[in-house]
Design goal:
Elements: E1 3-9, H1 13-26, E2 32-35, H2 41-47, H3 53-61, E3 64-69, H4 80-91, E4 96-102, E5 120-126, E6 136-139, E7 147-150, H5 156-169, E8 173-178, H6 184-198, E9 205-210, H7 211-220, E10 227-230, H8 232-246, E11 253-257, E12 264-268, H9 285-297, H10 301-316, H11 330-341
Parallel strand pairs: 1-2, 1-3, 3-12, 5-10, 8-9, 8-10
Antiparallel strand pairs: 4-5, 4-11, 6-7, 11-12
Helix pairs in contact: 1-9, 1-11, 5-6, 7-8, 9-10, 10-11
The chain binds adenosine-5'-triphosphate and magnesium ion.
Residues 12, 16, 69, 71, 249-250, 270-273, 275-276, 282-283, 286, 323 line the site of adenosine-5'-triphosphate.
């Protein structure tokens, strides 16, 4: 029986996770859960460590983890969020960040032209290197002569494996996005890995765009995209753009995946949203669609599809939270999706 660890976390994390769990429970599948209630900012404040070696061992024993959100103003600027999220990412080598963006309902699109609204793509973001490795430094910090350096790291292993994963995920087309015209070294490596990997996939339509053009095209012609593969920072930015085109931050799901081990950390794209925490207003759809991604990976694709259909039905009937134009709270919105399942 698949074992899922659950990390509700901070802010709205526990509220949206509760709805995702209630939905999974209601499906009556052979899933068991190990809830790590203590992995949060409160524990970090009290003990200086939110994710212990024992927690990590429990997570390793499981088949996947469902995370709410990690982040709290009381520990902002400390290494708290980095320690939890980056530790999980690096220790479990979750190198592929998979973010689908599928328009939930026509009324949620910010685009004027109805024929161009139906975005249905996946952004595969490299998750372990690029600009976010914290390698760099500052000279004369705080002075007007300061020099600040953040190094962008690309390795042959890191680039080729995320490209391989993107190609394996696609059935129609893959677009590689870089800035090789301005970032020559990493750009050359991405180009080379892309050429090597795509040679073996003549069945797919493959293309390349510079990131500035890709951003423009996502707005002007979003339905042209199927799978996009790109580095850590471009993936961060483009996936927020795609999320906004698909229905907004509250609806966006993701998984941090190691395709070799099959282990995934499933989480909504939004953060802990402290401004609305505890008010029963957070949209649970990002967490619920993340649970659907999990269902797909642990052998329940039919249930995953049913969950997505139920979400679309609830949104179509405006049985949803205020960010999607509805009047329901978090709990009632979760309940509406469960009701649409039956
Ligand atoms: P973090 O640093 O934890 O990623 P952030 O600063 O990126 O946090 P988020 O927590 O992602 O911010 O949220 C940004 C804003 O979007 C929130 O303040 C909130 O108003 C809104 N928001 C985020 N998630 C949701 C949601 N699930 N439902 C409704 N509104 C949301
Ligand atoms: Mg954020």
């Amino acid at each position: 029986m698949p074992l899922i660890t659950v990390i509700p976390g901070d802010g709205i994390g526990p509220e949206v996770t509760e709805q995702a769990l209630a939905l999974l429970d209601g499906l009556g599948l052979d899933l068991s859960f190990d809830v790590l209630d203590h992995v949060n900012a409160g524990t970090f404040l009290a003990t200086g460590c939110a994710l212990s070696d024992d927690d990590l061992a429990r997570i390793r024993r499981s088949d996947g983890a469902l995370l709410g959100a990690i982040g709290d103003a009381r520990v902002a600027g400390t290494r708290y969020a980095r320690d939890v999220l980056l530790r999980l990412r690096f220790e479990l080598d979750l190198y592929a960040n998979y973010r689908p963006a599928q328009l939930l309902h026509d009324r949620l699109s910010p685009l004027r032209d109805p024929d161009r609204r139906a975005i249905d793509c996946v952004i595969v973001r490299e998750n372990t290197e690029g600009l976010y490795t914290d390698i760099g430094g500052a000279l004369r910090p705080g002075s007007t002569a300061e020099v600040a350096i953040d190094t962008e790291v690309s390795t042959h292993l890191g680039v080729s494996r995320v490209i391989d994963f993107a190609l394996a995920s696609a059935t129609r087309a893959v677009c590689m996005v870089d800035k090789s015209n301005a970032v020559p070294n990493g750009g050359r490596l991405w180009q080379q890995c892309w050429l090597d990997a795509t040679a073996a996939r003549p069945d797919l339509a493959t293309s390349h765009l510079y990131v500035d053009v890709a951003a423009m095209r996502l707005l002007s012609d979003p339905t042209a995209f199927d799978v996009i593969v790109t580095n850590n920072s471009y993936g961060d930015i483009l996936s927020d753009l795609a999320a906004e085109l698909a229905g907004g931050l509250g609806t966006s799901a993701s998984v941090n995946l190691n395709p070799q081990t099959g282990f995934g950390l499933y989480e909504p794209v939004h953060g802990s949203a402290p401004d609305i925490a505890g008010t029963d207003t957070a949209n649970p759809i990002g967490a619920i669609l993340s649970a659907a991604l999990l269902l797909e990976r642990v052998g329940h694709p039919a249930e995953a599809a049913a969950v997505r259909t139920a979400v679309r039905m609830a949104v179509a009937e405006v049985r949803c939270t205020a960010d999607l134009g509805g009047r329901l709270g978090t709990k009632a919105a979760g309940e509406a999706i469960r009701a649409a399942l039956h």
